[in-house]
Amino acid sequence: MCSGASARSSGACCATCAASWRRTSREAPIRLELWLERAERIHTQRPHDKNKLYALHAPEVECIGKGKARKPYEFGVKSSLVVTHKQGLIVGARTFPGNPYDGHTLAAQLEQTGILLQDIGVKPTTAVVDLGFRGVDNDIAPVQLIHRGKSKTLTAIQRQWLKRRQAIEPAIGHVKFDHRMDRCWLHGATGDALHTVLCAAGFNIRWLLRAIVRRGLKAAFLVRPAIFSLSSVHVHVDARR
What we know:
This protein is α/β, with parallel strands linked by helices. Helix content is 45%, strand content 17%. It has nine helices and seven strands; from the N terminus they run ααββββαβαβαααααβ.
């Protein structure tokens, strides 16, 4: 952010360029007007303003607070992943533009997971999450919500599920760094959504290749009934970018 004389000079330069470009043609190109509007928006915004523009080429980028000392902020679009409880297979991946509260994304994420799993006759019944998703039990009913804020009311089996929740953290790391989810090269909000799904698909393909090596080719074709042998599935949900 510019300040003082530099800010005034850059603002005057921007105004001069805009005026000269508009004089060259009675009808300035729409694309040129778009870039001028974004440049003026970046020049006039202040540190504590809301809905700031962080990237000229990607206006959908948001500042997402991480809450970590080594990386307090990240810039991008919030993505959500759903991972099965035992095998760690990704059964849901989508983006949520606008940086919504994590709890407000859970119902939509579980809806996508139910659609993806409907062909094999299963649906999520239990969501094991962190405290960022608390307070949304009514929104996702009849799916049961488990987090450590309910530790006093959980059964012994549910406590075991809660300990297993940390398994989604390395899955997020592998999707971000091994499958290039940390940077999207596709354009716009649609490109972000496609990129998230493709990265999750790459993770699952590598997961399947490991299963082929570990169990043999014949066992790999039987992996679907082995994973979803019950009429329900417990999942871990997290939202990151």
